[in-house]
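Quick one, T. Sequence first:
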Amino acid sequence: MNRQLVHTPEGVRDIYGKEYAGKLSVENVIHRQLNLYGYQDIQTPTFEFFDVFSNEIGTTSSKELYKFFDKDGNTLVLRPDFTPSMARCAAKYFMDEDVPVRFCYFGNTFINTSSLQGKLKEVTQMGAELIGDGSVQADGEMIAMVVECLLSSGLSDFQVSIGQMEYFKGICEQAGLDEETENELRDFISGKNIFGAQEFLDGKGVDSFYSDMLLKVTDYLGSVEVLKQTRELPLNPRSLKAVKRLERLYHVLCEYGVQKYVSFDLGMLSKYHYYTGVIFKVYTYGVGEPIVKGGRYDHLLGHFGKEAPAIGFAVVIDDLLCALERQKANQKEQEELITLIYNDTNYEKRLKEAIALRKNGKRTALIPEKEVMEHEQ
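Structure tokens:
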């Protein structure tokens, strides 16, 4: 037998035993929380047409997609991200719907990252999408739901960092940057490469006044007080409107009582170009990556034929489990397994006992006496 076949490819892994039981437990409590908010379950295919995740949509880079062909020559991809799939599905089945639609989902995503990055290429995500509601109240519902999902999982030490794409876009528009330049600058700033951003803007001949404003976005990081500090700048109407929206959002989050978990970062940008307004990420110690990502994508459904505002988020279950383990958070223990040992003479009796226990919700396993004795020897 080829020994290599018992191993998994790089970037994927087996999960079993106590670890998998813990994963299922966390998934169940998060799923219940999403249902409590009125979100209905939906399942989309593991693979879709390539165009659902094309550069025009603004999702994962083509070089990081797992691509293959069907028998008709169509290019297909394993989903790297749930949001475009949700948008496609909503546009198909709810084209004429004029009231908000709430979805929640669960499944795995696949990104063909470099082996040097040390990241999993297949991860489990759970998330929710609110389609057809462009209000700040919808933004607040999403972020409050994230907080309650994490608390219900057993995590208590985390921070939801909130940004606003329109704030950055407004300054780019004010500075006269075209879309290509804006996207390149976004990569520098999202990577906190300020020196690279400065050199890039100098090379583009951007006026120092606007260059300083663009570079200064990374300074606005912290409590709600940072929103007041932005008022000191000569903001354009688009950016000012974004700040006012964040102030209203903070008020909504205070009404939910989750403000202690919230901070602001106006330098937060995303590699997903479909985000249009508020964006947010959840950070916690023990994990190097955000355990939750989300934001507003008001134009994405338009690519699939339905104009509707939308906002959503995804919890990376694998990273959440890692955080729970490293923080020694109190996770719900799986109920103890009852073992009933039987032999040829008492099998029927033991079987009746097992059936009765299982009817009462008790985990019960029947084990032959011979196997127990061999194990003890």
